[in-house]
Structure formats: C-alpha cells, structure tokens
Write a structure and sequence with these properties.
Layout lengths: L13 E2 L3 E3 L5 E3 L6 E2 L15 H12 L4 H11 L6 E5 L16 E6 L2 H10 L4 E4 L12 E7 L5 H7 E12 L5 H7 L19 E16 H10 L2 H4 L2 H8 L3 E15 L1
Parallel strand pairs: 4-7, 5-6, 5-8, 6-7, 8-9
Antiparallel strand pairs: 1-2, 2-3, 9-11, 10-11
Helix pairs in contact: 1-6
C-alpha cells in the first residue's frame, strides 16, 4: 500500500514513472525534474504559495556555502540511531537538509508548498520523493512514517501525529534565544529573544521530549553572503529599509547562529 495519498479523495496513489494515479481516476504527472505536485488549486491560499524564487535562490546559495553545515550534521547524528524506515521532511525548501537525511532512513520524502523550492530540490537529489503539498493536510496515510522533521517551518502538530507510526519521532529545529543576535541589533531598535520553548506546549499530551540540544555556529560573512542570509530570513521583511541597506553595505560582518533541536517521541 502506498504511503502517499491522493490530495482530492485521500485514496492511495499508485506510482508509475510518468504519472501517479488513484483508484478513483485522479492522476498527477511526474514533472521533468522528478517531483509531483499534490497541491490542488482549491488548497492554495495564494497564486504562488510559499517562499519566493528570490528567497529560495538566496537560501540555496547561502546553505551550499556550508555556513549551516554543523546543523545539518547534528540533525543526521540525532536521527540515524533511531533506525527509521521512512522519514518525512515538512517544509523542506530546496532540500539542503533533506538530502543529508537519507543517512537516517532508506525512504525520504520532502514536502514543501513552494514549487520553486521543490523543483530545485528534485534536480539535485534524485533518490528522494519530492512533493509539492500542504503541511496542513499532508498527502500521506495514517501511521505511515517513522520520523517527521520540521526545520524552521510552521508546526502542524495534529497532522504530524496522524502520519507518524506509534513510537515515531518528530524533530523540530527552531532559532535559539540569541540566534543572529548581532544581525537583529543592526535591523531593529529593540531585540527580543526567540522563544523555542513555546513550540513544546503544542506537543503536550501526545508526545514526550526525548532529546534536546543546541548547535552554535560562528559566522564571518562577506557582503554577498550577508545579503543572502537577510533574503532568506523574516528579519529583513520587518526591518526599516534604511537599516537593512546600512547592514547590507558592510564588507564583512561577524555574528553567531544558534539553533534549538528538539526530538519528541509520539506516545
């Protein structure tokens, strides 16, 4: 039985090289790059939902330069000992982290609502199932995966719980309290610490905290990398244009990235 469901009727999709079909006759073409779009127009909240092309490209260039490699390695190290068979990465973006998670499970599914991100991911990582889809209504069967990952994406906890097998795990990665603090000091008059603990409240009753750790990375950013970082974060949208312009004009900037990793087990 297929893990992946038709987004229209919720029947299993039978996967063929060029098209995926359900028993009710709904079909979804496999794109030239290898991904499948399972986001019907009635499930969209805008014409082009998710991250823009500019944000996706900036994130790809920044991540490929290796600045956040310690975080990727920490995720793999945390998940590999679990012995999972199937892993779902929700909000996977262009696949920088997802591509490394094949070390933690033989079957990896990457899902994002942004088609430009999935297109880039599918071009690079051919051994992963790439889906354009909604995290609010995952096109996966109940109890069908061992691990769900959510790195910097919105948490749809009920859906995560539904698709996880009993005893399965969720990995949540969020900014730690002082993530990019010096960057934020340049952009805002007042800086508030991030609150990673607020995400744990939604998991109470259905999950238990298994492991928690922080990853810290010192960054020395040349001007191009600094601009890419700003483009891929929400900070730049909220900052005053003159403050962003002043920061982007810096030749070199030093800061520290800090991440909170929380591994939770479904009870």
């Amino acid at each position: 039985m297929s893990r992946i469901l038709c987004p229209l009727c919720r029947q299993p999709l039978q996967r063929q090289p060029a098209v995926w079909k359900c028993a009710w006759g709904h079909s979804f073409d496999v794109a030239r790059e290898g991904y499948v779009n399972l986001l019907p127009v009635q499930h969209k909240n805008s014409l082009e939902p998710g991250d823009s092309v500019e944000m996706v490209l900036a994130r790809r260039e920044f991540l490929q330069a290796g600045y956040y490699q310690p975080l990727r390695e920490a995720c793999v190290a945390l998940l590999t000992p679990l012995g999972a068979q199937a892993l779902l990465d929700v909000g996977c973006g262009e696949g920088y982290y997802t591509g490394a998670l094949t070390a933690a499970a033989p079957e990896v599914i990457g899902l994002d609502i942004a088609k430009p991100a999935i297109r880039l991911a599918a071009k690079r990582f051919r051994n992963i199932t790439w889906l354009v889809g909604s995290a609010a209504l995952l096109p996966l069967a109940d109890a069908s995966v061992d691990i769900v990952c959510s790195l910097f994406s919105q948490l749809q906890i009920a859906e995560m719980q539904r698709v996880l097998k009993p005893g399965g795990h969720v990995l949540v990665v969020t900014p730690a309290a002082d993530h990019l603090w010096s960057v934020r000091e340049q952009l805002f008059d007042t800086v508030q610490p991030h609150e990673p603990d607020k995400f744990l409240a939604g998991f109470e009753g259905g999950f238990e905290l298994h492991t928690r750790q922080e990853v810290r990375v010192s960054l020395s950013l040349e001007q191009a990398a600094l601009r890419q970082l700003l483009e891929m974060t929400p900070y730049a949208w909220k900052a005053k244009p003159e403050k962003r312009a002043a920061l982007e004009g810096r030749e070199t900037f030093f800061t520290q990235a800090a991440f909170s990793l929380m591994l939770l087990r479904k009870m």
